[in-house]
Structures are given as C-alpha cells and as structure tokens.
Design a protein that fits this description.
The protein is mainly beta. The protein is built from two helices and 24 strands.
Length: 336
C-alpha cells in the first residue's frame, strides 16, 4: 500500500524481531495515468503532495504510466533531441524532519529505498537533504550514463562532517551500463554507529563510510538531467523507514570487506603495513581511539598496499577506518 501517504507504524520482522517503522511510501498506484503534477512550478503540490519542476527549455516530463507486472510507475522522458532536458520531483521542505522527529524512540537508523529503471543518456540522482539547499545533502545516490566523457557510473555521496564525500560505487566505462532493468537501491544513515551504507542488491553493490555529524534528514529530492529524446527514467516503490538495527545482510557484507584486510605488525611500534587479499586500493585511513574520538586522517594515492606511520600515537587500542572504492573497512590496531 502506498499512495504518497505518511505512516507512523511499527512492524515486527522475523527472524531477529527487528522493529522497523515505516514513515512514507509511494508506488503511484492510486493515481490516474497522466502528469504527476500539471504545474511545473516547484511550488504547487500535485498528486501525493509532489512538487515538480523542469529546465527552462521545458523538455522534461513526468508521467504516471502503467508498467507490466508493476502497476503504475513514474516515467520521465524528454522531447528534445538536441538540448538536454531535466525534471525534478520532491516533497515539501521539512517533510522528513517532521517524520524523523516523531519516530519511535530507538529507531535511529534512517533507511531510504526505491526502484530505478534507466535508458539512454541520463544523470539521475536522489538526495536526502539537510536543508532547502539541494547541495546540502546528507546522503545521495546517482546513476550516470553517457553523461560525459568517462561518466558512466553509479556513485554515492554523503555528508562526512562539514564537507561532502563521494564513493565511486561502480564504473561502467569499459562494461555496459545496466540499462533496461529495474534496479533496487537502498541507503542507510546509522546515527548510532555513525556510518552510511549504500546497497544495490540487483547489481551486488555495497559500500559504507563513516560520518561525524548529527544533522537529521530535512527533505527528499529526485532529479533527472541530461535527458534527450532517447532518455527514459522510471521510478517506483519509494519508501522511508526508521530502524533499530541494521539488516543482517548489511552487517555481514561489511564484516566480509573488513576481513579482506591484514595489519602487521599488530601490535605496532612505528609503522603498520596494511594489505588486502583482492588488490583493493585505499584512498584514506582515519584513526579513532576506542572512545570514538577522531585522532588523525591520512590520504593515499589509490594504493593497494600502504604503510601507515603510527609513531606519534600514544600506547593503546585504535580503530582504523580504511576507505576504499568498495566501502570502508574497519580494523583494530594496538599501538605499543
């Protein structure tokens, strides 16, 4: 059941009796076919409260269409073969803040999910925002195909602290972009462990990274750009939830990534060597003490084997966050 409705309900899932709270769902099934919103002014609510806008050339259009086996979906297209078009749809400012502030105590993991289908030239992204500024993103996921030279990829972005970081989840410069299939995507912001997670089960993609802020969700925004007459973007089954614990499939995959890395010597005195079994490259190592305090950050130039200088660390136990293209692995280090 979804109709752009708001929910504040709790469900028990088995096994593990993990309690989840559904805030909002949208599957477009209750709407007649045709425009999601006939007013493309970004200020007049349409069906389900959705606000829509498009580029000045007016070539981006969002229509409710029937999809075999799925019911209704939102289909975004362009009528221009020469000038790239754009289309955006969003909920009103503060939409997520109200839902988040009324969540059941303990549901401190924000989950956002949807299904995506793309064809042709596209630059499609969904942003969970922390203010009305579209650049103020807590977490976002982008699908880019034929967007520009060497821009055939899926990427995830997130607010680290006061700046934004981007993870290149999958490059498609030498392999075909996954067109013409429905892709399930999930994003998590875990305010307990201070980690974000990107999960695309359809393509077997998962990544994670740490963050260091308490900024809460404000609103959500979908945007499709670089559209031409060959472009098709479809969206379905949008859902916003609050969780007490991460799903087991997220936890198990994160542990698998960490298990691929080796630290030696450990305990260490001056230098610790960091290697892995699959030649994954490391961009950055962030060191925390056992209380979670940030100690230092060191950047590396896409190296599969690195030497980390720990000479200036006080004796004790530390957690190393290793940022890679596949996510962030966490390893424990003991400094003599």
């Amino acid at each position: 059941m979804k109709n752009g409705k708001l929910f504040l309900i709790s469900l028990l899932f088995v096994p593990f009796t993990t309690q989840a709270q559904t805030f909002f769902t949208e599957d477009f099934n209750s709407y007649p076919t045709g425009h999601l919103n006939t007013n493309y002014d970004d200020t007049t609510p349409g069906q389900g409260g959705w606000l829509v806008s498009r580029g000045s050339i007016g070539s981006g259009t969002g229509m409710i269409t029937a999809e075999a086996g799925k019911g209704n979906v939102l289909t975004i297209t362009s009528n221009s073969a020469t000038i790239p078009g754009s289309y955006s749809f969003r909920q009103e400012d503060g939409f997520l803040t109200t839902l988040w502030n009324n969540r059941t105590p303990g549901n401190n993991i924000f989950k956002f999910e949807y299904e995506f289908y793309g064809v042709g030239q596209i630059n499609f992204a969904v942003h969970i925002l922390n203010s009305s500024n579209v650049n103020a993103t807590i977490i976002s996921l982008a699908f880019q195909s034929n967007f520009g030279p060497n821009l055939n990829r899926i990427s995830g972005s997130y607010l680290e602290n006061t700046s934004f970081k981007t993870l290149n989840l999958k490059n498609y410069n030498t392999t075909p972009f996954p067109h013409n299939i429905w892709i399930k995507a999930e994003m998590f912001v875990d305010y307990n462990a201070k980690n974000v997670y990107f999960y695309i089960p359809t393509l077997n993609i998962q990544a994670t990274a740490p963050f260091y802020h308490n900024t809460i969700p404000f609103s959500l925004d979908f945007s499709a750009g670089s559209l031409d007459i060959t472009s098709i973007v479809k969206i379905d089954n949008i859902k916003v939830s609050g969780l007490k614990t991460l799903p087991s499939y997220i936890l198990s995959t994160n542990k698998q990534l960490s298990s691929k890395f080796n630290l030696y010597p450990n305990p260490a005195t001056n230098v610790v060597n960091i290697t892995n079994t699959e030649n994954m490259v490391v961009q950055q190592v962030t060191v925390y003490d056992i209380a979670g305090k940030l100690i230092t950050t060191q950047n590396f130039n896409e190296q599969a084997e690195i030497q980390l200088n720990v000479e200036n660390l006080a004796s004790g136990t530390y957690m190393l966050h290793l940022q890679t293209n596949e996510g962030t692995a966490v390893k424990k280090l003991v400094k003599k």
